[in-house]
Amino acid sequence: MVHVSVVPDRCIGAAQCVLTAPDVFDQDDDGFVEVLDEHPDGVQGEKARMAGKICPSQSIVVSGGDDAGAAGG
Predict the structure, then answer these.
(1) Which of 28, 40, 52, 68 could join 44 in a cystine, given CB atoms 3.0 to 4.6 angstroms apart?
(2) What is the pTM of this model?
């Protein structure tokens, strides 16, 4: 299981996280990231980690799991 958080002031609304992990992320009415599941595990945890890696604004932080302390990019 991983822990997912966001830095809301960095989000630019690119929605790559929502496309990559729609069970973990959504967008609010203004188009900015919202976390639906702060502790995804298994496949959803891996999708969250990938979303963190591809986030163009580096607003997604994923820690724990197999790669403890990793920050998404």
Answers:
(1) 40
(2) 0.85
